[in-house]
Amino acid sequence: MQRAGAVTAERPGPYRFGRIGAGTRLAFPQGTLFGEPWIELGEHCVIGEQVTLTAGMMPDVDLGPEPVLRIGNGVVLGRGSHVIASVRVEFGDDVFCGPYVYVTSDNHSYDDPDQPIGRQWPRSAPVHIGPGSWLGAGAVILPGARLGRNVVVAAGAVVRGEVPDHAVVAGAPARIIRRWAPDEGWQPPLRTPAPVPIPADMTVEQLLALAELEREREQARERDPEAERRGLEREPGAGAS
Predict the structure, then answer these.
(1) Which of 44, 82, 108, 128 is catalytic?
(2) Topology of domain 2-191, per CATH?
(3) Would you say residue 85 has pLDDT above 90?
(4) For 107-160, what is each residue's pLDDT tens digit?
(5) Per-residue b/e over 24-54, b at no fewer than 16 CB within 10 Å?
(6) How do beta strands 185-187 and 175-181 pair?
(7) Can 108 be counted among the known catalytic residues?
(8) Measuring CA to CA, which of 17, 35, 123, 241 is 20 to 30 A from 225?
């Protein structure tokens, strides 16, 4: 059922997106989808289960000649995320989102104290999420937000306004807690060293062999915690200044 119900460019089902790029897949079951002619999905995107994508306030509304919701190439939207767009919402390439992220161009207004808030006309403003950004689980991106390149949004943060390139934001409302400075690096400094990337030419078989070797070493350390230290002391040059 999951394979048959997935939406792709080759098998769009009942949906007629403005564009759905090669390699993009909307997992089954999908969330609410409407306004698809004004939604453009780039190539090699991963759209998780129960993700809502909507353009316009309601279905079957003519939104004009331009796309309203544009998702770039290589974007990942985690399970249960919502993207609600009645005016322009744009994701740059390679934006990764954790589960239950909420991005919207619309917010309720409460100007009239005599009317129920849900019946008052909402305020709307475009949203831009810069390429390479990461939105943690449960993050909320409000109307008018503009995130720069490679921005990190912490889990549960509520973001509005401008966020510069290479910044980390957290909290509700979100504020900058770390930022990259070209002359100084990350400020404040990172607490742990950067992970060592896997070499591009390493094969799956080599990775599995390394994992098995590491398991064997861990088991040996558990059996004899001093063995590794003794082995280092026997190496040539050990203890040399």
Answers:
(1) 108
(2) UDP N-Acetylglucosamine Acyltransferase; domain 1 (2.160.10)
(3) yes
(4) 999 999 999 999 999 999 999 999 999 999 999 999 999 999 999 999 999 999
(5) bbbbeebbebbbbbbbbbbbebbbbbbbbbb
(6) antiparallel
(7) yes
(8) 241
